[in-house]
Amino acid sequence: MQPEPTTEHPARLVVIDDEPQIRRLLRMALEGHGYQTVEAASGQEGVLAVAQSRPEAVVLDLLLPDTSGVEVIRRVREWSEVPILVLSALGQEKEKVSALDAGADDYLTKPFGLEELLARIRVMLRRALRPAESPNFSSGLLEIDLSARRVWVNKKELHLTATEYALLRLFARHAGKVLTHRQILQEVWGPKSVEQTHYLRVYIGRLREKLERDPARPLLLLTEPGVGYRLALLDPE
């Protein structure tokens, strides 16, 4: 497990939510685990807070009084790649997908558990700190040499088809981040295939057969129901 931020170098998080009790809960939880927090009660305040405080991550509610959380993401993404964790109310599946397509990194559905929130933040920060130029990727028993296009699981080399490798490479480049069906289909199969979700079901099944110890209970390649998939960042075994 990735250690929490130290008191010498605490990570700064911007929390954007119009509910004072939620902001208070998040502030207490985050500061109790060594993070600094900056609060904003509206979208406009949130964009300004991100610009001024230069945080390591953002926690953003989708329902804001002055603008949508999706619009906040779009505005921030015009100039920043800061990790963004979205908080969404129950029944907002379309909004979750819109937020992820706009550039959010992950989401949690309200009500949420604080331990899961902290775990998701750790993963986002871990992903953000990975050297972008490194051709080597690992998660649990999975190892990839992107420069040589070679893949191993538990030190055994795998043989993947071109499409399987393209999928896995995409997940590795965005490990820890939820990718929507549309994002994956457009990247791997092209813009004319963004509605062909059956392609994904078939190839995700094939990848799990090769990557997972138990494909029926995947630990590495995870499904986000109704939204997409995510490659988990696991500690080495």
UniProtKB/TrEMBL annotation:
Chain residues forming the annotated DNA-binding region: 132-233
Annotated keywords: Cytoplasm, DNA-binding, Phosphoprotein, Transcription, Transcription regulation, Two-component regulatory system
One function term, GO molecular function aspect: cis-regulatory region sequence-specific DNA binding
Assigned GO CC terms: cytosol; protein-DNA complex
Annotated signal peptide: none
Principal location listed in the UniProt entry: cytoplasm
Protein name: KDP operon transcriptional regulatory protein KdpE
Species annotation: Methylacidimicrobium cyclopophantes
